[in-house]
Design brief:
Layout: E1 3-6, E2 17-20, E3 29-33, H1 38-58, E4 62-67, E5 70-76, H2 82-87, H3 98-108, H4 111-114, E6 117-121, H5 127-134, E7 138-143, H6 148-155, E8 163-167, E9 176-181, E10 184-189, H7 212-226, E11 232-237, E12 240-246, H8 251-267, H9 271-274, H10 284-294, H11 300-303, H12 321-328, E13 334-338, H13 346-352, E14 356-361, H14 368-377, E15 381-384
Parallel strand pairs: 6-7, 7-8, 13-14, 14-15
Antiparallel strand pairs: 1-2, 3-8, 4-5, 4-6, 9-10, 11-12, 11-13
Helix pairs in contact: 1-7, 3-5, 5-6, 8-13
């Protein structure tokens, strides 16, 4: 297949639309089910690059959950604790494969954003992973292959119209890429930057103790940012992104946005949230929405009399600001990556509130000294990579 006609482009009025290979080459993909659209393929190809690089960098199966051409979550296949299984709604699924753990983490980090995602997997999709995907609202998936039973499970989604793409894992794109904007063609070399342990060797803070897990988390943050719409920052803990701030014009707004998402991830693990008693038969999305409201500033939208009864068996107590702060103060050893330099120390101050201990960023600001000084105040470890990772 050398080209694939699409229903439309980004929007229904943008026709005609297709994907194709130049120089009469074959496309490196097969559509096994469904009719993926223009944005689906953008998510699929960006997500595939991300998980392929995560697998190369860590040696672990990787998964990402994409929405609107940026990852909502990304993770490698480390085992899940009982608490994580519960907040990711997989505690009833028995033993999970490493790939299934990776997707549960990627999907579960920011469930509000991952609703209706496009999934990318680094490895052949197994039954364990397919069973998780089957119960989630999702637009489609790309992977290098599918176990026969896993493929049949996925084909049952969306009344047989779920988008399933198989990509050739050996496909290597041309070293020069092009993009048309306003009838004008842009050309650049592909971002083939390899991110490994040496990438983080230039530590500029007084504390230089970078753990092996922190190196993995730094790699996850940087590779995730490589495929996230800029400006962007990424909080990572124990092998998974826990907060991604994408497409903001201000660096501090990225840091706040992603930090709030990381805080919500940790608040969902608190006894107050784990103890919520939902009414029988409530949908997964409704539970996610209720939790998001409960831990946020608009909690009365779900706790008001005449409202809470639709969601909870027992009216929950208010999760006070003081209680939330006390719980968040227990979050530690978080890694923060940035696709460009931090221009002010206020980013570090905000990161500290979300338990950040390790930071990877390019450096190069005229205020680097102030940023380093702020890191030293909190005993953080910061690496200057020297490389910007903008993605547009």
């Amino acid at each position: 297949m050398k080209e694939l006609e699409l229903k439309y482009g980004c929007n229904p009025n943008q026709k005609p639309a297709r994907i194709f290979m130049k120089d009469d080459k074959e496309l490196p993909i097969k559509v096994l089910c469904g009719k993926p659209g223009y944005i689906n393929f953008l998510d699929a190809f960006n997500g595939w690059q991300l998980v392929k690089e995560l697998k190369q960098a860590t040696g672990l199966p990787a998964a990402t959950s994409f929405k609107h051409v940026s990852p909502a979550g990304a993770a490698v296949g480390l085992p899940l604790s009982d608490t994580l299984k519960k907040i990711y709604w997989v505690d009833d699924m028995g033993e999970l494969s490493p790939l299934a753990c990776a997707y549960a983490r990627a999907r579960g980090a920011d469930r509000m954003s991952s609703f209706g995602d496009f999934i990318s997997l680094s490895d052949v999709c197994d039954v364990s992973t397919a069973k998780i995907i089957k119960r989630e609202v999702s637009d489609g998936i790309i992977a290098p292959g599918y176990e026969p039973e896993a493929l049949e499970i996925l084909k049952q989604k969306k009344k047989g119209n779920y988008n399933i793409i198989q990509i050739d894992p050996d496909y290597v794109p041309a070293p020069i890429e092009h993009k048309d904007v306003f009838g004008i063609t842009f050309e650049q070399g592909r971002n083939e930057l390899k991110i490994d342990d040496d990438f983080f060797s230039h530590i500029v803070t007084e504390n230089k103790e970078l753990t092996e897990q922190a190196k993995i988390d730094m790699a996850i943050s940087m590779i995730t940012l490589k495929y996230t719409q800029s400006n962007s920052v990424c909080y990572v803990k124990d092998g998974q992104a826990i907060g991604i701030g994408a497409g903001q014009q201000s660096r501090i707004h990225c840091t706040r946005l992603a930090g709030n998402k990381a805080d919500n991830w940790f608040l969902r693990q608190s006894p107050k949230v784990l103890g919520l008693q939902f009414v029988d038969g409530i949908g997964r999305a409704d539970r996610d929405n209720a939790i998001d409201l409960y831990i946020g500033d608009e909690y009365m939208d779900v706790l008001a009399d005449g409202v809470w009864e639709k969601t909870f068996k027992v009216k929950p107590e208010v999760f006070t600001v003081e209680e939330k702060r006390a719980w968040l103060d227990q979050m530690t050893d978080v890694t923060l990556g940035s696709d460009a330099f931090f221009p002010f120390g206020d980013n570090i101050e905000r990161a500290h509130k979300s338990g950040v201990k390790y930071i990877a960023q390019p450096g190069g600001s005229v205020r680097d000294d102030h940023v380093i000084e702020t890191c030293n105040k909190y005993g953080m470890v910061m690496s200057f990579t020297g490389i910007r990772l903008f993605h547009h």
